[in-house]
Design a protein that fits this description.
The protein is mainly α. It is built from five helices and two strands; from the N terminus they run ααααββα.
């Protein structure tokens, strides 16, 4: 059991190094939160835009709105996201991942899988 735990930790360290080198956004705690919140929303709402506002997607009691907005602005400047007005409520805005971010997410998932497959067999669960 301990050997498996060491293997898991070794792969997590390897993944962390890859993220540090390839995903500068993840170098801060707020950046990590924003990235994974957007990833989560993109995965679970992949069928199209949702009515979820920025606050609903990114709300976290530990991070200030200002810090989150600054990270969003940075992502927008880097061409990773666009912000659009909600169709139903023009006061609310939504995050739309760009092709650049979707490509980055795919590379992140691919590298995570490659690292884990060095020591583990990954089986897809049937639902």
């Amino acid at each position: 059991m301990i050997a498996d735990q060491h293997k898991i930790m070794a792969r997590l360290v390897e993944l962390s190094h890859w993220e540090w080198a390839n995903l500068p956004l993840l170098k801060t705690v707020v950046g990590r939160h924003v990235y994974f919140s957007i990833v989560h929303d993109a995965i679970f709402h992949a069928s199209g835009p949702t009515d979820r506002s920025l606050k609903q997607v990114l709300n976290h009691p530990e991070y200030t709105d200002r810090a989150v907005r600054m990270k969003l602005r940075e992502m927008e400047d880097e061409g990773l996201i666009t912000r659009v007005y909600n169709e139903k409520d023009k006061r609310a805005r939504q995050i739309v991942p760009t092709a650049k971010l979707l490509d980055l997410m795919a590379k992140h998932a691919e590298n995570t899988q490659k690292m884990l497959e060095k020591d583990f067999i990954i089986l897809e669960r049937q639902s």
